Amino acid sequence: MTPNKDQIPYSLLELAIISNGKTVAETFETSLDLARKAEELGYSRFWLAEHHNAISIASSATAVLIGYIAGGTKLIRVGSGGIMLPNHSPLIVAEQFGTLGTLYPNRIDLGLGRAPGTDQVTAQAIRSDRMQSVYKFPEEIQQIQQYFSPDNASAKVRVPMAEGVEVPIYVLGSSTDSAHLAAKLGLPYAFASHFATTHLFEALQIYYNEFQPSEFLQEPYSIACINVIAADTDAEAERLSTSLLWMFVSVLTGRSEYLREPTEMSADIKELWNNPSVQQMLKYTFVGNKATVKQKTREFLTKTGVNELMVVSNLYAHEDRVKSYRIFAEIMQEISAEKQAEK
């Protein structure tokens, strides 16, 4: 895997967002339908994110949902974006993903992060000693690697269903710390630039400059995540984006609410959108028609040089979300074709 290949993989991040008026069961059904459509549209991966104590996010039991999605699809890679490792025992993670990797060979990814994925009170309820685990994040990644190694067959503590099973590990990050770690371990690196925008370029530079080849990866491989809301017209995309705006405002204000139905882009909502905190979080949010989103996407790829784009489209209506992902797939296919034509 090397940077700037002509064929640029594009993937999808799913939080199983619950829209106002929908049930958790309905949300899971639409997530599976989305995964099947993403598979048809050429998406490389369908990753699920671990979050807790948020009424609008249903992806808390991430490994369980990965099995559900993988079982309902045929080719697309399914994984975690990510498992928040300080919330879990490395042995249990190896057992879960060793099982998934055995059930769905060469289709499971294990993305690992160190953030809590929730508020501090809930984090304490999940695992009271999680802060000790945060500091042991590098060692716990290597412990998981050991459980997956065939050499672990002679160890006293084993995960037999994981030994020798192919489940690639990705280091996730939203600051520069994990960039150093991913480079040192020689692992692929995914940056959460769909909400953590401040350190994107610094983190990528650290990763590229410090990367050490490993048995898992010979050259650096980077993924960046962006928000995309694509529609037939810029005006319609702006209207749909109001749901995303309220979602981020609820995060910033500490309120927990279901994803709101979109409304017209009023002066008050535009003022909210221009709030410095919102602007910073949504810096890499591309809203518009196909031409608008394509231009912004091409510029982002040129500036970052990432190997792969991961996109999240949190929209109220399932059909609007599917349409946004369809437009983005067309954009990525066109950009790849243009790169090939330039040679």
From TrEMBL:
Query: Per its UniProt record, what SUPFAM superfamilies does this chain match?
Result: Bacterial luciferase-like
Question: Could you state one GO cellular component term attached to this entry?
Answer: cytosol
The molecular function terms in GO held by this entry are: oxidoreductase activity, acting on paired donors, with incorporation or reduction of molecular oxygen
What region holds the Luciferase-like domain? 25-307
State the family named in the UniProt similarity comment for this chain.
To bacterial alkanal monooxygenase alpha and beta chains.
Q: Which NCBIfam families match?
A: oxido_grp_1
Name of this protein: Luciferase-like monooxygenase
Provenance organism: Adhaeribacter soli
